[in-house]
Amino acid sequence: MTNNSFSGSKYVRRGEANHDAEFSCSVQELRSLMELRGEEAVARIQESYSEVNGLCARLRTSPVDGLDGKSEDIDRRKEVFGLNIIPPKKPKTFLQLVWEALQDVTLIILEVAAIISLGLSFYHPPDAERQTGGVDDESEAEAGWIEGAAILLSVVCVVLVTAFNDWSKEKQFRGLQNRIEQEQKFTVVRGGQVIQIKVSEIVVGDIAQVKYGDLLPADGVLIQGNDLKIDESSLTGESDHVKKNLDKDPMLLSGTHVMEGSGKMVVTAVGVNSQSGIIFTLLGAGDEGDNEDKKDKKKEEHKRKDSKGKKSKFSRIESYLTCQCGLFMSTLTVIILITRFLIDTFCIQGVVWLPECVPIYIQFLVKFFIIGVTVLVVAVPEGLPLAVTISLAYSVKKMMKDNNLVRHLDACETMGNATAICSDKTGTLTMNRMTVVQAYIGERYYKKVPEPDLIPPKILDLLVLGIGVNCAYTTKIMPPERDGGLPRQVGNKTECALLGFTLDLRRDYQAIRNETPEEKLFKVYTFNSVRKSMSTVLKNHDGSYRMFSKGASEILLKKCCKILTASGDVKVFKHRDRDDLVKKVVEPMASEGLRTICLAYRDFPVSDGEPDWDNEAHILTGLTCIAVVGIEDPVRPEVPEAIRKCQRAGITVRMVTGDNINTARAIAIKCGILHPGDDFLCLEGKEFNRRIHNEMGEIEQERLDKIWPKLRVLARSSPTDKHTLVKGIIDSTVFEQRQVVAVTGDGTNDGPALKKADVGFAMGIAGTDVAKEASDIILTDDNFSSIVKAVMWGRNVYDSISKFLQFQLTVNVVAVIVAFTGACITQDSPLKAVQMLWVNLIMDTFASLALATEPPTEALLLRNPYGRKKPLISRTMMKNILGHGVYQLTIIFTLLFAGETLFDIDSGRNAPLHAPPSEHYTIVFNTFVLMQIFNEFNARKIHGERNVFEGVFRNPIFCSIIFGTFVSQFIIVQFGGKPFSCVDLTLEQWLWCIFLGLGSLLWGQLVSSVPTKWLTFLKTAGHATLQEEIPDGSDEGNDVVDHGDLELSKGHILWCRGLSRIQTQIRVVKAFRDSVSPYEGLETPESRSSIHNFMNHPEFRIEDSEPQIPLIDENESEDDPPTKRNSIFIPPPLTGLSSQPPLPFTPNENNNALDRVIPLHKDISRSALVPPNSAGLPPCPGSPLHSLETSL
């Protein structure tokens, strides 16, 4: 790419001040120009403007110095060519959001019930006094409207909260879009100075600098480009990257992504006149929310069907309770009441049917229907959508403070189930502040940055010139923001380290750049994930060329055939010399966790003729090595602890980096991803690809399944490798428990992996626009420890909703049974409709607020992930629901049928139709509510923990609601009167009610003492799929059964497992009969160099041993104390007894310090990061027979 001519541009600048003269290009002309592509566009530019500089002249701008930046000129351009803003579609109004919230099935049933109840409350049939006697209490009848009003109030409450949350979510999302788009800065040249301005401030005629990772904010024509490749799929749908240059295709379009290279363009269209703006206008508006919905839909298509979030589980439970249980119970109640009334009136009493008595019969039917509606209202869990809404909204808001900007709400919950995290190294695990700390220059290895006088002047000049021109001109070292602070690093951090190195050598790189501006660079081969290097070509005055290169040391050194000596002379660099340099310099640097960069150059003399610049393989050979530097990027101090928490929580952390394998391994050890002596794998991208591809060059899932469970570090990896790994782990069916994968990424090429992952984390500081767009959560501080916070919040969301369900279902079950049984036996519900609605509305709404806002604790990280198919209601929760239901029903029925005797009061049973409230039924109601208040403490624990008060004061909302509910109950009982069907109670009666309520806490301790495994009849509820729950005790178990067998009956699975175990034992016996010892040859040199020889025996194709897996799936580990159970994490084995020979290992791929073959009886506890004496771990097998027999 030859240097462009900029002649004739200076006079253009002088003429800019004359604003009376119109621009020589109209908006329509520029729009039609930008619709052209390729050679057609080049021809139009040549025809209309002679060249790009002619277009700049017509737009009154300079290709070198840009616009002059005067406000009147900028305003004039905005007036003529428009603003760089696409007006968003009007957001939905609050009323529209209310209407959408009203479409919920649960709420529709409530609305219908409310309208019917209100209508009936105002219906007074004439002469409707019951002839059998009784008092028609007018005030009681007048209070009938309270039932309908209370139901409506519950609907209004849920609708308003849902609509408000949707409104705030949309507002938050628009705010986020404004932060990412409107406040996004872009680099332009104005008045000869490179400055950053807001995207919305860009005008037609601006000279914009584009670089790798940018999302282009406007249309433009390329002026100068270096190896520029653009992803135009967002506009054209074509996935191939389009190469841009002046000769073939100089058109750059807004909304496209720069995937490689850098360059400059003159802006020709902005806002609604740009190509993406035109499309948005055709669609009706540029609504970011619509785009987001499309992204969500695409994301869902990529995800597996069984990775559904909570909403499917909630809707299943809700529809089950609403449509099945609720409607069935309410209908049955009405039918029984009507039937009993008819039999009692016309058969037993022998009343004759009289037409004039019809109004009386209607009144009874109204009464029965209201009781039926009461049962239905109690059965419908309208608090559930409220609990989900509050929990997610509360979590998202709090996660903002923990540096997690949630873009998709479902990601918040999905993160709680994550089983694997594939993390970048630079910036996430490390501080991303790089400095050169070691160097090899002039055949000398310096353990610290050398003084300039120790380096030969000739080498020093080459070194500084090479670094100055061969680093992106957008990268620079800026003065510190405050005195005594560190200099600010702007741009690529590796290049910042090199520029800082020149400053340490007391040389000024900026002077070199001023002497050689970017326009004078003859050709630039920009850095990308394939090259792993960057090269810049300069043209000398005599016509020769000099190319400077920098890149990964082990890659660039292979392309060097010469090296500079201590005297500054050039000497031949042989293969043996290279090996010595790698062994004595590169490996020691890498082992200390340093990133090693080689700096080299090559001269192209005139006598060799013009090189073929497109033949990269030929150009990037025959280099002369100037120096090798070691760059330190310190591990973030909080990362090792964060990774330890992840491992303890059952989450596998893998490092995926483009760095050298030795550097990656050293950093992984510092972080705690690897431990000396572990038998986990460290692979390079090439080796990883070799192992997973078959002879046809296709990726095989079976091959991938042999690698990923033990893989901890993937070095020298490309973005494609990262995507392959993530997809392979997500699609893998090696274990019963499918993996949920989170991925971090910052680069443009990380987009596919971020989209494929269950949860994608983009870096807020170092991340490109493309990565942020593809992500679910943005880490605003680029810190791995923030991911751990996201895990905690995700698990907390799941647990909070489970706590609420445990509480609400207990209330619902008891209330429905009491209402149904009482109504059928006494022809009247012991709990009146208004009392039920107080219990249902206030208790449910308050409970959702109290239990859904529990703050997360470190204890959440002491258990393994739930996985994709974990039910919302576990067996332990079901045990608690039924256990507390039994206690409450026993107390209520005892009070109902024997309360008048126990308290020596009048019976409230069989009262006339409109009798005044009784003490008897008031005690029943008061005791019922107090039992719910104290049971709310029990609901705080869902895993069988005993201390239900732990951390209660950390949640002021919970304490306030408990106190407020108690006070409200006191007021209702003492002063509620006839509307609430209550009479005031004595102090003694209150104390008895409180005592019976407190009994819930004591009963809870008894329920916790009953092992769940005894209650085999209990089933779970709220699965994502209909598959039987996989118990915690054996999740992650590596079964010999194929994943398809999981669809079979449990008996079939057990049969297959038993058969596999017998086959294993037969193989072992056969092996011992043949006198083959499993330890034979383990320490021989042959076995060290190749494990393949040892593994050739089919009897010993084992790569790990595993604690014995229980065969009975019903055994849950939920009964163990949480701290004891949850602290155990046993990583899954790679395979069981494989029927295929494994691929050979190479010594440097395994992190084992001695590169030894893994002993079959290795100490499980060490690799599992669990103390040897931890409860629940089996003793270390004493014999190889035991070890083999228990390996599945």
From TrEMBL:
<dbReference type="InterPro" id="IPR006068">
    <property type="entry name" value="ATPase_P-typ_cation-transptr_C"/>
</dbReference>
<dbReference type="GO" id="GO:0005388">
    <property type="term" value="F:P-type calcium transporter activity"/>
</dbReference>
<keyword id="KW-0597">Phosphoprotein</keyword>
<keyword id="KW-1278">Translocase</keyword>
<feature type="region of interest" description="Disordered">
    <location>
        <begin position="287"/>
        <end position="308"/>
    </location>
</feature>
<dbReference type="Pfam" id="PF08282">
    <property type="entry name" value="Hydrolase_3"/>
</dbReference>
<feature type="transmembrane region" description="Helical">
    <location>
        <begin position="368"/>
        <end position="394"/>
    </location>
</feature>
<dbReference type="InterPro" id="IPR036412">
    <property type="entry name" value="HAD-like_sf"/>
</dbReference>
<feature type="transmembrane region" description="Helical">
    <location>
        <begin position="881"/>
        <end position="899"/>
    </location>
</feature>
<dbReference type="InterPro" id="IPR022141">
    <property type="entry name" value="ATP_Ca_trans_C"/>
</dbReference>
<keyword id="KW-0106">Calcium</keyword>
<dbReference type="InterPro" id="IPR001757">
    <property type="entry name" value="P_typ_ATPase"/>
</dbReference>
<keyword id="KW-0406">Ion transport</keyword>
<dbReference type="Pfam" id="PF12424">
    <property type="entry name" value="ATP_Ca_trans_C"/>
</dbReference>
<dbReference type="GO" id="GO:0030165">
    <property type="term" value="F:PDZ domain binding"/>
</dbReference>
<dbReference type="InterPro" id="IPR059000">
    <property type="entry name" value="ATPase_P-type_domA"/>
</dbReference>
<keyword id="KW-0067">ATP-binding</keyword>
<dbReference type="InterPro" id="IPR044492">
    <property type="entry name" value="P_typ_ATPase_HD_dom"/>
</dbReference>
<dbReference type="Pfam" id="PF00122">
    <property type="entry name" value="E1-E2_ATPase"/>
</dbReference>
<keyword id="KW-1003">Cell membrane</keyword>
<dbReference type="GO" id="GO:0005524">
    <property type="term" value="F:ATP binding"/>
</dbReference>
<keyword id="KW-0109">Calcium transport</keyword>
<protein>
    <recommendedName>
        <fullName>Calcium-transporting ATPase</fullName>
        <ecNumber>7.2.2.10</ecNumber>
    </recommendedName>
</protein>
<dbReference type="InterPro" id="IPR004014">
    <property type="entry name" value="ATPase_P-typ_cation-transptr_N"/>
</dbReference>
<dbReference type="GO" id="GO:0046872">
    <property type="term" value="F:metal ion binding"/>
</dbReference>
<feature type="transmembrane region" description="Helical">
    <location>
        <begin position="105"/>
        <end position="123"/>
    </location>
</feature>
<keyword id="KW-0547">Nucleotide-binding</keyword>
<feature type="transmembrane region" description="Helical">
    <location>
        <begin position="143"/>
        <end position="164"/>
    </location>
</feature>
<feature type="region of interest" description="Disordered">
    <location>
        <begin position="1112"/>
        <end position="1151"/>
    </location>
</feature>
<keyword id="KW-0460">Magnesium</keyword>
<dbReference type="GO" id="GO:0005516">
    <property type="term" value="F:calmodulin binding"/>
</dbReference>
<keyword id="KW-0472">Membrane</keyword>
<keyword id="KW-0479">Metal-binding</keyword>
<dbReference type="Pfam" id="PF00689">
    <property type="entry name" value="Cation_ATPase_C"/>
</dbReference>
<dbReference type="InterPro" id="IPR008250">
    <property type="entry name" value="ATPase_P-typ_transduc_dom_A_sf"/>
</dbReference>
<feature type="transmembrane region" description="Helical">
    <location>
        <begin position="989"/>
        <end position="1010"/>
    </location>
</feature>
<feature type="transmembrane region" description="Helical">
    <location>
        <begin position="320"/>
        <end position="343"/>
    </location>
</feature>
<dbReference type="Pfam" id="PF13246">
    <property type="entry name" value="Cation_ATPase"/>
</dbReference>
<feature type="transmembrane region" description="Helical">
    <location>
        <begin position="957"/>
        <end position="977"/>
    </location>
</feature>
<keyword id="KW-0813">Transport</keyword>
<dbReference type="InterPro" id="IPR018303">
    <property type="entry name" value="ATPase_P-typ_P_site"/>
</dbReference>
<dbReference type="InterPro" id="IPR006408">
    <property type="entry name" value="P-type_ATPase_IIB"/>
</dbReference>
